Amino acid sequence: MQQMVNTMLEGEIEDFLSEGRAAGKVNKRNGRTSKRVVSEFGPLDIATPRDRNGDFEPELIGKRQKSLTSGLDDQILALYAQGNSIEDVRRLLADIYGISISSGSIS
User: Fold this and answer.
1) Is 106 part of a structural domain of the chain?
2) What is the pLDDT of residues 53-73, one digit of tens each?
3) Most buried of 19, 23, 59, 90, CB within 10 angstroms?
4) pTM higher than 0.70
5) Could you report the per-residue pLDDT of 5-24, keeping only the tens digit for each?
6) Residue 61, exposed/middle/buried by CB under 10 A (0-12, 13-18, 19+)?
7) Is 28 a domain residue?
């Protein structure tokens, strides 16, 4: 779960920086900030990526957010609400974020 969340955050900053480059903005990565968040799977040590301009606001886990339940869980529930099966959700997470997670962990 921890690896999945960190991979998703890396994807978020890549998209953020790509959009900025397309708009002509100069911005680059600037390391990571470590924090511990609580999830239904227990505490997770997260490495939130940063940008030099300080403009990046992660959507999955906000800057001062200490609980994962309102981010990823809501996204997974939204996928269920759209009629996706557990296997569909697993495949979507693998395709979008490049992570492998068992169907049992999702349910």
Assistant:
1) no
2) 999 999 888 888 888 765 666
3) 90
4) no
5) 888 899 999 999 999 999 99
6) buried
7) yes
